[in-house]
Amino acid sequence: MPFEFSLSPDQEAFRSAVRAFLQKEVAPIVAEMDETEQFPAATVRRMQQEGYFGVPIPEQYGGLGLGKVGYCLLLEELGRVDASHGTIVGAHTSLGTTPLLYFGSEEQKQRYLVPAAKGDRLLAFSLTEPGSGSDSGAVHTVAEKVGDAWSLTGTKLYVSNGREADTIVVLAASDPKRGPSGGVTAFLLDKGRQGFSVGRCEKKMGLHGTSTAELILDHVELGPEQVLGPVGAGFVVAMTALDVGRVSLGAASLGAMEAATSGALDFAQKRVQFGAPIAQHEAIQFKLADMAMKVHALRYLVYHAADHQDQLGIDVARWSREARQAKTREAAIVKCLASEWASDVIDQALQVHGGLGYIRGTPIERAYRDARISEIFEGTNEIQRLVVARDLLERGL
Ligand SMILES: Cc1cc2nc3c(=O)[nH]c(=O)nc-3n(C[C@H](O)[C@H](O)[C@H](O)COP(=O)(O)OP(=O)(O)OC[C@H]3O[C@@H](n4cnc5c(N)ncnc54)[C@H](O)[C@@H]3O)c2cc1C
């Protein structure tokens, strides 16, 4: 596939504005947020006011209209500063707004997408359950038809933004016998609905600014207007959102790798051992070179995939089967490589810092804890390899 890609002046200006904003408003609070494990409500509000929760959403629906490339620029910059803020934006934008943009009715777009893009409504996405993680089609939460309406009962797990969200995209089994192909439906569940409560919020290794919540649904009644996309198409809705999420996760990993590499480069030039900056030792130079190589390669992978998604457009009905499969394979490749390279680069950067890298509160120590989850969420890397392998077996290289 031919690929020529460079950022437009507008995209460059957006990146600069985001970088300046994050340095001024987010960077100063990150260390304390990590220690206190509090959701960063004030900085999230500021980001919402700047329009950063609606970057890829078309302007007609209240967004900034900067597409997936613009969205990846935001996530890359967030990745350089703080993974928690990146995850809050990602759970909302990739996983919350994508289903609405691609599958919502016009009424749902006006009611949910516009305020979500403008930053007046926070979204979350809930697929995982206690018995259904990687096997995400094996949803046990049941959606029972009661007349025109639906009654949802079940327990959901590990929902990012689950405690704070105003609305959650929930996947439930509307026809359990059919499983993922035709038996799962997506619903829009508003906070405060009778029978809905937020359960346990997990203590985690990293991402201390995010909530990871259990959701309890006990005969929650939802009208037909709360069904998102066709009945039975929930698995397609979810996987389409995850394709967007996986590329943006790659962008966040890229940002984290850039910050780790710059930090290690800077430290290695200042830290003197054996009478010289450690950057003069070849073993350290090789680590720095390996980090820079991965950063370089990942930039192409991420923006190629984001550009590809922009070229496809948002009219899902017009996507060919081939185009869908190529998009899904590419997203899996980006997610898998980016998360593993990020773990590796950050690990090497920590090594360059010596003992200091292990001290609680240093940026590299936090980055190390924050990075690990990217190999697990939005589909583990084992699942990404399965996705790639299945597509390879069907369509070849
Ligand atoms: C911080 C955090 C935030 C999250 N946010 C969300 C969210 O917002 N919304 C949401 O719905 N979910 C969310 N998740 C859930 C996350 O997506 C799942 O944890 C993940 O998909 C893995 O599922 P699991 O934990 O049940 O692991 P399991 O599926 O039990 O997997 C355990 C291990 O077995 C491997 N495995 C399983 N099946 C296979 C197979 N067929 N072949 C090879 N290996 C296999 C896995 O790769 C993994 O290594 C979040 C999780 C965390 C920790």
Your description of this structure?
This protein has 3 domains: 9-122, Acyl-CoA dehydrogenase/oxidase, N-terminal domain (Butyryl-Coa Dehydrogenase, subunit A, domain 1, Orthogonal Bundle), CATH 1.10.540.10; 125-228, Butyryl-CoA Dehydrogenase, subunit A, domain 2 (Beta Barrel), CATH 2.40.110; 234-395, Butyryl-CoA Dehydrogenase, subunit A, domain 3 (Up-down Bundle), CATH 1.20.140.10. The relative contact order is 0.12. With 397 residues, it is α+β, with helices and mostly antiparallel strands. Helix 4 crosses helix 7 and helix 7 (234-270) packs parallel to helix 9. A 4-stranded mixed β-sheet has the order 1-4-5-8. It has a 4-stranded antiparallel β-sheet with strand order 2-3-7-6, with helices on one face. A hairpin with a 2-residue loop joins strand 2 and strand 3. The protein has helices spanning 9-26, 30-36, 41-49, 67-81, 83-103, 106-118, 234-270, 282-312, 321-352, 363-371, 381-395; strands spanning 123-126, 142-146, 149-160, 167-173, 184-190, 196-201, 212-222, 227-228, 272-273, 276-277. The mean pLDDT is 97. Bound molecules: flavin-adenine dinucleotide. Flavin-adenine dinucleotide is lined by residues 91, 125-128, 133-134, 158-160, 204, 207, 212, 373, 376-380, 382-383, 386.
Average pLDDT score = 97
Q: How many angstroms separate the termini?
A: 12 Å
Overall 3D shape:
globular
Helix content: 40-55%
Which strand order spans the largest sheet, edge to edge or round the barrel? Answer: 1-4-5-8
CATH topology of the largest domain: Butyryl-CoA Dehydrogenase, subunit A, domain 3
The gyration radius over C-alpha positions equals: 21 Å
Low-confidence region ranges: none
Give the full name of the CATH homologous superfamily of the largest domain.
Butyryl-CoA Dehydrogenase, subunit A, domain 3
- The CATH class of the largest domain is identified as Mainly Alpha
The tally of strands reads 10
Structural class: alpha+beta
Q: Give the cofactors and ligands.
A: flavin-adenine dinucleotide
